[in-house]
Amino acid sequence: MLVTETKAAQAGLPPQETLEELVSLALAEARKQGASAAEAGVGVDIGLSVNVRRGEVDTLEHQRDRGIGVTVYFGHRKGSASSSDFRRESIIETVQSACAIARHTSEDPCQGLADPDLLAREIPDLDLYHPWDLDAEEAIRIARDCEAVALAADPRICNSDGASLSTYSGIRVYGNTNDFLAGYKTSRHSLSCMVVGKEGDAMQRDYWYTVSRVPEELEDAESVGRKAAERTLKRLGARRLKTCTAPVLYAPEVARGVLAHFISAISGGALYRKASFLLDHLGKQVFPGFVRIEEQPHRPRGLGSAPFDQEGVATRQRVLVEDGVLQGYVLSSYSARKLGMRSTGNAGGVHNLVIQPGERDFRGMLKELDRGLLVTELMGQGVNITTGDYSRGASGFWVENGEIAYPVEEITVAGNLRDMFQRLRAVGNDVDPRGNILTGSLLIDGMTIAGE
Fold first, then answer.
1. What local confidence, expressed as pLDDT, does residue 433 receive?
2. Start-to-end CA span in the chain (Å)
């Protein structure tokens, strides 16, 4: 058993006011050093994680991390430095280091703080902080119970890759010399289990997990263990397919990856580098007419919720796709200036991307698929955002007459994202809430399935 304990006795997060003082000190020192503008962010994280395998504690970790990052601007020259030392003299040295870097960098007219009129002046309470008063012994018990249920589910469950529980709380404070200073606390808790099944000489593994900002909203340990075992058993007897072209139904837990590729293609970095297959597609049809995608950053307790982005820009609900037409990009201040536009409050990424669900549940989506492939796991990184070429290793189930016929493995699903988006036939209402991208299952026509 590996035990790592980092200042675990110092439980609890510091007051926000204490971190605001550190940010204010850094900004004042930057001004003193001659910077024309500056920004600083401070974060403190505490957590507990445990991994149990075959009933034995494999790892137990108490985490307590902290850091301050400072960025200064001398006109359009930028310098950054960071430290984990919160002493006054260390923060001053960090600012001095950032200033020394800035004085030796080249001018970039797009560098600088976010536009002042875009900064968040009101900070909504999004109910993101629900710490879990959990000691190591209780965490170990929960993880053991989860794994034990999975191992006892069926004689064909022959081994375990372990059950893991983690709980995390954190606080972030950000400020800049445009009179912005704010922060908020968050929490995140999760429980997962992965087991191995065997039938004859063939072995399969699968998993399940639950995650929430609120410990009481997690699935119980027995449910997670049972689902991990059920998913593993369903994969036993997997076959390969002959190469064909067929519709593919992405289960909700993997469907979010398809939408993540869409976000990559409309993100500022890819656009200003001209490395996106959706370059110059603003106002153009990219999905079928029934598709609506929006960002909902103020969802209470949302895993992607945030009152402002990493630059202090206010987040807001906005539509990215309406009637299948691309309405907006995903931009930070820098990428927006490179494109001659304004920040969309997405420094650091999107906040709760939601695709409007359709009317069918998962069984209804299988019926709509009729004959084709249900994908439940994707492997590999075969996606080229510049061209849209898409090729991923996959496993899942072959579907006949709207019913799962048998499990499949060692196949590849391929296409081009531009075509895939246009060929989206249906979106399920079986939304998976366990992430920053909220989607039901996605049914896409005309995919190439490479097998034997």
1. 95
2. 43
